[in-house]
Structure formats: structure tokens, C-alpha cells
Amino acid sequence: MSSFETYLISPPLTNAAAFRPRLLAALAALKPVSLLFDVPAADDRDQINLIKALAPLVQEANVAVLVNTAPHVAVRGGADGVHVASPLLIGPAREVLKTERIVGVGGLASRHDAMDAGENGADYVMFGEPRADGSLMTLSALLDRASWWAEVFETPCVAYAASAEVVEALALTRAEFVALAPWCFDDPEAAAAAVATARESLQAKSKQPA
Length: 210
Known about the structure:
- The chain is α/β, with parallel strands linked by helices.
- It has a single domain (5-207), classed as Aldolase class I (TIM Barrel, Alpha-Beta Barrel).
- The chain has helices spanning 16-30, 44-59, 71-77, 90-97, 111-119, 139-152, 167-171, 188-207; strands spanning 5-12, 34-38, 64-67, 81-84, 102-105, 124-127, 157-161, 177-180.
- Strand 4, helix 4 and strand 5 (102-105) form a beta-alpha-beta unit.
């Protein structure tokens, strides 16, 4: 693999109108293939309305919209899929979304969890996103986990970049996707520069003799 795709993760969303300019700027600068809306727990109707207000802006750019909500909320909001926090949630999500929508999974505390996710039909696995208490996997552990998965398994891997400084290292794991955390919406141009540098490094490494 000589490149990777970008996967954006929004900050927690409460005001669709206020977020719209930041969303459009990030889409233009980063040209992702997927975007995960972090939709805080709320009444179903509020979640659906928020998704409906923002999803078309993303989908018009040919970017898949994922949400971290209940599967039925994703369907009614018009999202392209869900991101669930445990392999145990893949089956229930798939029952609602069938094969027409994406089911991705994070919250993978071990290699065994990741393999379970792949066996249970996840469309991708994500490594390195913040745990429930806000803590992060160490960078060395994340690099090891993403490299292992990308080398061994066919299910796509998403490596979570907690800052611009780690994008290049994550790209070199050969993960199919690098997830840019909410920081990318604060400075899309800087995020785009980090992605460009990472792609150049990956391409250069790919051209080196084996």
C-alpha cells in the first residue's frame, strides 16, 4: 500500500449550525472518505435532527457519514453507518443495518477483541481512540497493534491520530485509514499538511528495495 485514506472524527456535536463552517472547511482541506459524527446522548429526535442537518453536507462530497448512536437513529437520520464501542454490539447493529450500511468498531482492548470484531463482521476496526476515562493507548502500543493488524488481516484498520505529530508514524504502519481526531477541525490546513507529509513518506518507503 502506497497511501491511506483519511477518516475524520468530529468533536461532540450540540449545535449543527455553529459547526457547519468548520465542517465545510475540514471537508475541503482534507478530502476524507469517511466522517464520524460524535453525537452526544440525547433524545432520539434531537439526535436524528442533528444528523439530518449535517449528513447531507458530507454525503454531497462523496464522504460516508458514520455516527456513534443507536442503529435505528442512524437509519432515521440518513447516516451511512454506525461506529460501535464493542465487538458485542456488532451483531445487534448488523440486525438493524443489514449489509446496506457500515458497521465499524472501536473499544478494542486486546488483540483478541480485535479478532473477535473481525470474525463478527465488522467493516473496519479502530485502534487507539480515547478510552471511556479519556486516556489513550501509548503510541508504541498503537503502532504495534495497527502494524500487526494491517499485515495479517483483510478487514480494514483505522489508526487514531491524537495529534498532527503522530499522523506520519501511523501511516507507516500501513493502516488503510488514519483517523484525525477533533483537533483537525481547529486547523484543517495544518492537518492537511500533516497528511500530505505522511503520504509522501509512505510513498518513498514503498519505492525502497525490499
